[in-house]
Amino acid sequence: MGKANRVCKIYCPIWCDGHWFLLVIDVIRRQLVYLDSLPSEDDRPKRLRQLKKVAIFLEELMDSDDWYDEPTNPRIMCSDYEIKEPKVTRQDPGSNDCGLYVAQWMIMYHLWNSYEAEKITDYSRMRLAVDMVLKYHNDKRMEVIQAALEY
């Protein structure tokens, strides 16, 4: 991962009561960015508590000198950061697309510096699946490619 004092953003997918949402810890802007494709006024307090728990956990984890180039580097105190909730594309009620939105947000921000994700379609599901299978970090990548070529 590298040293904490060189990190700009930390992406933390969070699973809470059968639903995925994303916490992005923006170290540069000192913000906790809360992205939720199916927000709920009833579930919001619990999800925000989960978000804060993760921020506190990461803060505690990164308190060690081992995470920094120098022991004098300032610590990441993300539990004090302001919570931002940008408007994002919403999933269809009754769908199970929350995890796909989380994956899209991580990919889109990395590529385009934006959390604007497209509406989930069969095409976007297939594209994400193919991307995940063919990425260099997949240990089975070459087996899948070989099997596809043989087929």
TrEMBL record:
This is Ubiquitin-like protease family profile domain-containing protein. Keywords: Hydrolase, Protease. One of its GO terms (molecular function) is cysteine-type peptidase activity. Belongs to the peptidase C48 family. It comes from Arachis hypogaea. GO terms for biological process: proteolysis. Residues 1-109 form the Ubiquitin-like protease family profile domain. Pfam families: Peptidase_C48 (PF02902).
